[in-house]
Amino acid sequence: xxxxxxxxxxxxxxxxxxxxxxxxxxxxxxxxxxxxxxxxxxxxxxxxxxxxxxxxxxxxxxxxxxxxxxxxxxxxxxxxxxxxxxxxxxxxxxxxxxxxxxxxxxxxxxxxxxxxxxxxxxxxxxxxxxxxxxxxxxxxxxxxxxxxxxxxxxxxxxxxxxxxxxxxxxxxxxxxxxxxxxxxxxxxxxxxxxxxxxxxxxxxxxxxxxxxxxxxxxxxxxxxxxxxxxxxxxxxxxxxxxxxxxx
Length: 247
Fold this sequence. Notes:
Layout: H1 4-11, E1 19-21, H2 27-35, E2 41-42, H3 45-51, H4 62-75, E3 81-84, H5 93-103, E4 107-111, E5 113-114, E6 119-120, H6 123-137, E7 142-147, H7 149-152, H8 157-169, E8 174-177, H9 183-193, E9 198-200, H10 208-213, E10 218-220, H11 224-241
Parallel strand pairs: 1-10, 2-3, 3-4, 4-7, 7-8, 9-10
Antiparallel strand pairs: 5-6
């Protein structure tokens, strides 16, 4: 197993100089990110699922999701790709790692809630799962451990820090408290964890420059770009339906 892309991806997680990831959904969007000069590419499970005709929440067959990741990796060969694989699609750690590496991924997101149910997984169980993934992958995968307390609540910095520390001790490279948007809370979490923190960029999130000042090491756009592109496409289609020129 090669670790070159994983090493390059891991090195891009620098607090204060964050890795910015405009998440993609197919080969074409991946190429657009690469052509814009971004040093890494990340998939969004929700966006990929919708492109493939499924809803988010591990409703996409794992084979289809991994095939989509592989198409992205082939489209941007030489650029590290990190794959959003939700809670692992029910795969055991060894098979999950094997399939990610076969698809060409250099990293992955793994979340600590049950897909489609909005229930947090016991942090000890999640830490054990992450430790097994790390043991199998060695240095060949960058593990971004998602912490869902701000998504499913009750939102608690103490709980986020507790979970984040356990996941880091288990071998995670980065902690991702998705939907955390308050400046003071971001700064406090970054300080208390003392490790790379990933922030989701949304409507309430501080700007990219401010997030860098807060010490964030990674910024993800999730399914936001795909949703915006779909809204734009619907507008074009509406123009055609009304007899207007779409362009």
